[in-house]
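Students often ask why we bother encoding 3D structure as a string. The short answer is that it lets us treat folding as translation between two languages. Here is a chain of 306 residues written in the first language.
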Amino acid sequence: MTTPRQTTGLPSTDEGLYVIENAGALDSPVFFNSPHSGDVFPESFLARSQLAKPQLRRASDLFVDELVTPLVQAGLPLMRALLPRSYIDLNREPLELDPRLIEGVLPVDANTRSLRVAGGLGTLPRVVGDQVEIYSGKITLDEAMDRIAQAYVPYHLRLQQELALRHAHHGRVVLIDLHSMPSSGVPRGGRRLADVVIGDRFGASAAPWLVDRLEILLRDAGLNVERNHPYAGGYITEHYGRPRFGWHAIQIEINRALYMDEVRLVPHQGFSVLSSVLSSALIELSRLLLFDFDTTALHFSQKAAE
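And here it is in the second language, the structure alphabet:
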């Protein structure tokens, strides 16, 4: 892939919140995002938490952004969060607030009844791992809203802007949202957990032919792939996926056992192999979409019908 000539002219970072690799790259309609790989912990948060940093890191999708380094080297754009998921969860609604964590009267438009909030995993998580409480008590509403205003809102404003730029340039945009899943996740029908789970909100967030093509590429790379089980896509996939209007969003969950020691929280010998095969599949998908989107869609739709 050649060095991109089309540029956005936007800065590549918001200090302390995110970094966008190849921020100016507009040659492809594909944009990659890693919202849960952040590992920069504010000192105020560490002081506020009753858990040590190693315990808090278990909530993050560690090293996912590093897994796809070959994408960056190929000139493709990657947005990656710097703040950890235990501090702010960017894959939630802006006001999925947990009344068991936040004291005071919550905003009238707060979503306090979602299953994610019920599990302690709202926009400001209350727990990590197996229901281990992050805080010794409640936090104030002012603290919660400040965190959302200063960390969550700027991230999503920039993500929206990047996607809109590519949609304006190509008439289409494809967001690939990258995550990881613990190997102890729930398998289907007694089968082992897949290597990769593709989530498209059961067909609602991306064109079926596009998701089919991604699945074929991942399978051809030797990976065991499931779709929408046990992860169908979170807020980001649901919110930004509007295929009817040319906005496609796909979530990819990667089995952590393939590339890291889940106890010691360090990459293991499988990291480089997975990085190569996963990135190659995603680069190939991006290469295909460099061509006319409608022609590519028609081609693969016809192939699927044969």
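Translate back mentally: The mean pLDDT is 91. Keep this in mind for the problem set.
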